[in-house]
Amino acid sequence: SGINAEYGGPEKSMKSGYMATSDRVLKAYGDDKAKKLMSSRTPRLPSHTVIKSALDNIHMRDFHSTATPESLESMGDKLYIQILADIEKREYDIVPSKLDLALSEEPVKFLNQLKCLRGIFAWVMADYKTALQNFDSVIMDPKSYMRLKVQAHVHRGEVYQAKSDKNRALADYNTAVQLDEDHPDPYLHRAQFYLSIEGLEQALKDLQKCISLDEDFPAPWTQLVYGQYQMARTMTPSLLDQVFKNLGKMQEKFPEVADVFALYGQVLQDQRQFSAAEEKFLEAQRLAPDNVTYKAHIATLKMMAENNFDSALVLLKEAHEKDPKCDFVLENLGMIYIQKQMYPEALECFKKALELVKTEAEAAHLSALYIGIQCQWEVCDEYNVKPVSLADLQDFSQMMTAPQG
To answer: 404: which DSSP letter?
Structure first.
């Protein structure tokens, strides 16, 4: 009777066993489905938010040139200068086709820069094959300058990481560090890799090194404080005071960086300081009105603080209307539809999100979620039984996300 009292009795134990088995089956299904999906999916540009986030995580100065189109002879080289201007103006939709055109026009001066940028845009489009071909070419060409090789290794590592090839990913990050120990970007991306495998101590060490190399680079600051908060939550609660001090310091240092306020809001939300969290999300939204993920965070806040799913649904619909290609919004919208037992709408959201995610891990998660909800819907409909609650599917208090990269 002592065991039953402690663990909830044999019925709870059996339920836990069934749930664990279901989780394993869904995970295996998701992993298999993700590999097939990502190898056959038609490449497409994701949300501009995703592209900007990827570019914010690198030093674009490695690609900059003082040359003007008039000073260049090759049409491919002239187009390269135009492409840099397009990226600066965030006119991302025209960049992939311009890169292809420039590479077909026999560039002389900027051939490897064009290949590296083509690889980066192929990567955000989840076109792994094209990305790897371009990065391999840059790495193997003895004419590539060192910082460009560093970028190629860093981004090839990202592609391998997206393909769940952790050994190759880490090898590329390590090589990038060895090529230029004073370049901040390899440390940032290796830290993001460590965060993804819960290697908090290694991640924090790399992030501190990255900041020491460029104190005005916002990305490692947000990742560092995120990592410190994860450590405070899981291992060292005494770190929490330092986390809030660092959040305040970061806010003062980067008053115009929306992700700083968004991270602050997520920490406050996780600590159930809802009013203060909403203020931070609203400030993030003011600073970057085109980034709809901040509105999605406010929607999550409404669910946690007020149990107000209708208000959350309105906010998420507004976000989706503004940016239909944001997979983060689509996933959250799907979860709301589940709570409201609107299963066809939920499945449609997950299906659309699956067309936009750029990593196998994201695709596996959504594939498992999709088949799980589909099965539940069919069984509940067939036998007229009550579905499980959203709390059984996902705890919204655990929806804190790492700063995007």
So the answer is: P
Closest CA to 402 of 244, 239, 248, 189: 189
Report phi then psi at 50, rounded to 5: -65, -45
Cβ distance 106 to 74 under 8 Å? yes
For the cut 90, the answer to whether the pLDDT of residue 383 exceeds it is no
**DSSP state letters, 338-381:** HHTT-HHHHHHHHHHHHTT--SHHHHHHHHHHHHHHHHHHHHHH
Q: Is the dihedral of CA 387, 391, 394, 399 positive or negative?
A: positive
Contact 190, 159 (CB under 8 A): no
Tell me the C-alpha distance between 254 and 60, whole Å: 19
**pLDDT tens digits for range 54-68:** 999 999 999 998 888
Structure letter (DSSP) for residue 69: G
Q: What percent of the chain has pLDDT over 70?
A: 89
Residues in the chain: 405
Q: Can you tell me the distance from the alpha carbon of 86 to that of 92, in angstroms, rounded to the nearest whole number?
A: 7
CA–CA distance, 363 with 344 (Å, rounded to integer): 19
pLDDT, tens digit (0-9, with 9 covering 90-100), for 301-355: 998 898 889 999 999 999 999 999 999 999 999 999 988 889 899 999 999 999 9
Distance of alpha carbon 396 from alpha carbon 301, whole angstroms: 9
pLDDT at 401: 59
Locate 92 and state its tokens.
């991302």
More confident residue, 69 or 245: 245
**Which distant-in-sequence residues (6+ apart) come within 8 Å of 367 by Cβ?**
29, 30, 33, 34, 37, 354
Cβ–Cβ under 8 Å, residues 258 and 287: yes
Note whether 363 and 33 are within 8 A (CB): yes
Q: CB–CB of 130/119 below 8 Å?
A: yes
**CA atoms within a 13 Å half-sphere pointing along the CA-CB vector of 127:** 17
pLDDT score recorded for residue 238: 87
Cβ 76 vs Cβ 106: under 8 Å: yes
Report the chain's mean pLDDT, rounded to a whole number. Answer: 89
The closest of 16, 58, 289 to 157, measured between CA atoms, is 58
**The pair of three-digit structure tokens given for residue 236, joined into one six-digit string:** 């060292």
Chain segment 81-129, per-residue pLDDT in tens: 999 999 999 999 999 999 999 999 988 899 999 999 999 999 999 999 9
Cα-trace Rg, the chain:
23
